[in-house]
Amino acid sequence: MRWFFKLVRSTHATVFRLSGGRIGASIAGMPMLLLTTKGRQSGRAHTVPLGFLMEEDSFVVIASYRGSPRNPAWYLNLQSEPQVTVQVGERNIAVVAKTADAEGRARLWNRLVAKTPIYKRFQDRTSRQIPVVYLMPVDSGVEA
Predict the structure, then answer these.
(1) Is 63 helix (H, G, I), strand (E, B) or coil?
(2) Which one in 49, 63, 113, 130 has a CA-CA gap of 20 to 30 Å to 102?
(3) Do the domain assignments include residue 27?
């Protein structure tokens, strides 16, 4: 089943990128972005589509991994190298990743669950606290 989700993510990222973000720009009412990280072991670029919310100038994503006991690889990559890029629509934006502190997570978690209730089920499936991550533009309005 893991191969299936990997194929879906890869196909989504390809279609999103080729269409300039017009196709696959939202899923279930949540806007989507492409996050490109540097592999912490391979050093290669890895791109994943993620739903997001806006918090002031920052994009907010959630490292749910569908409630898996482990954090997703992209989150581990962010911890190793927090300077990454996102594609939102046609724009590529340099961002710095920062995991939300307890207060920020609680506030953002409620917004995320209200928008996409499945995240609550994902949290119920796992003993780990699912991280909420800010992706903060390096220079507001400046494209990478």
Answers:
(1) coil
(2) 49
(3) yes
